[in-house]
Amino acid sequence: MISFFSAQPRYIALLRMVCYTKRRVQRKVVIRVKNILLCYPNGDDEADTIEHAFPPLGLLYLATTIKRSCPWVNVIIHDERIRGSSENDIGTARYDVVGFSTTAWNQKRTYILAEIAKSHGALVILGGVQPAVLARSILEHRPFIDLICTGEGEQTITTLLNGCEFAQIPNAAFRDKSGEVVFTASKADAWESAGAPDRSLIDLSSYVKRYHSYGGDGAPTNIITHRGCYYRDRTQKRGCRFCAYYNNAGTFSVRTRSPESVAVEMNNLVNNFGITFIRDYGEALPVYFLKALCAQKLPPIVVEPYMRISEITDETADLLVSNNFEPIFGIEAGSSIGLKGAGKGYGIAALNNALEIIRRHEMDCSFNLILGHPEENMESLKETELWLKRLPSTMRLRQIAVMVPVPGSRYFEDAVEILGQQKSDTHNVVELQRAYIQRFVPSLSLEILCETAEYLSRIVGIDSDHRKIDNLEKEEVSAL
């Protein structure tokens, strides 16, 4: 028997017209993929944080695309952070294709589950920034992984399900017959015109329950208004040094959905799902899109978009406050050295100017902070401490973390070069941190930075969510 994927003998065919011989009669049959599992593994290195209360929108968009474009396929989403282990589910051997959303924190768990899926005859696919960046190494070391999505996955999965050979699938990496790793052409998806994902494909109430388990009140969920980052577009230098992304097209482009479709989705979530606040998981909301969105009829609930604080003006602040938008800023550093090392594109003067605007408008907002940028020292940490103590009362600190060189970031490239691990497909997060800090933050250590993060979180007080009880687990700070 011949198949495109060298699958287990139980298959007659996985996708389209596979020739086989039976009783010396050559026939052609058409049996398409019927069952797909999309899994978000819960890694041992992944801290249990309030972010688990928000659905994996990447998988949800993929499942929605499959449902719309390949209606003969039954697609299931298994989020291990909510539903627990997927091993028994995968082990039932009823899935033709199993796809995993892979990160730096769940990579080991992904490999375990992927090997189980392959042992039961499934075609195994990985997606996410981590496997895209490490595609060649993964395919060279992991024979149980068949294909890696190296870009936006909607066209990748639908092209696959419509019976094309691997070489014809966009945004993909795979092994050819000789075992060589092949990368296919990159192609941007028309994602921005697809509208909202189909939330009937998940149990949204289970995420709300998880949110309540953290002490939260109300019913949150997330949306995506745009893909890409306009700061990367503007700089052509890959944006901030800690930011992880993979761009196999070699271009920089932020794409927004229509403000009308976002408004429809938001109203639907409030009216039909009982949602009480929404978080936008786009990278950095462009101000021009914020203005277009606020011109729509939006529900009277709090919306939390990620934004760059350097874009805050009196006009923008007024727009945010009047429309119940409470932005989340990735400030990442409270010192001149830290901001420069992080590649934020603005200095301490611009940051403090934005804080004064926030103070004048009494704008509710929150921010994240990272320690361990290049050349940081005890003086810059003290500067950060003083800066934190002068914040407007309406600003909430969400978390302080020590820098993690995740695959896809410039920090990661530096760290693996130091360790000589450019060809490795598995990386220890703490080992990467330690190597990077020893080389680029020589006056400090990982231990000092972790202790400082805990100290600053105590004196400022972490408020991961203002709808949440203040007693936040310190795992968010110290787990790394």
Brief summary of the model shown:
This protein is of the alpha/beta class and 480 residues long. Helices cover 37% and strands 17% of the residues.
**Distance between the first and last residues' Cα:** 48 Å
Q: Which overall shape is indicated by the principal axes computed on the Cα atoms?
A: globular
Q: Find the count of extended strands (DSSP E, 2+ residues).
A: 17
The residue ranges in which pLDDT falls below 50 over 5 or more consecutive positions are: 1-31, 466-480
- How many helices? 19
Main sheet? 7 strands, mixed
Strand content: 15-25%
Q: Trace the largest sheet across and list its strands.
A: 4-3-5-6-7-8-9
Radius of gyration: 23 Å
CATH C-level label of the largest domain: Alpha Beta
Instruction: Please identify, by name, the CATH architecture of the largest domain.
Output: Alpha-Beta Horseshoe
CATH topology-level name of the largest domain = pyruvate-formate lyase- activating enzyme
Briefly note the structural class of the backbone.
alpha/beta
Helix content: 25-40%
Would you identify the CATH H-level superfamily of the largest domain? tm_1862 like domain
Tally of structural domains? 2
Instruction: Calculate the mean pLDDT score and round it.
Output: 85
Account of the protein in words:
The structure is a single chain. The termini are far apart. This protein is of the alpha/beta class. The chain is 37% helix and 17% strand. The chain has two domains: 36-183, Cobalamin-binding domain (Rossmann fold); 215-478, tm_1862 like domain (pyruvate-formate lyase- activating enzyme, Alpha-Beta Horseshoe), CATH 3.80.30. Helix 4 (107-119) links the parallel strand 5 (97-101) and strand 6 (123-127). It has 19 helices and 17 strands. The strands form four sheets. Strands 4-3-5-6-7-8-9 form a seven-stranded mixed beta sheet, sandwiched between helices. The protein has helices at 57-69, 80-83, 87-91, 107-119, 129-133, 135-141, 153-161, 204-213, 230-235, 259-273, 287-294, 314-322, 336-342, 348-361, 378-389, 410-419, 429-440, 446-460, 475-478; strands at 18-22, 25-29, 35-40, 74-79, 97-101, 123-127, 147-149, 172-175, 181-183, 220-223, 226-227, 255-256, 277-280, 302-307, 328-332, 365-371, 395-402.
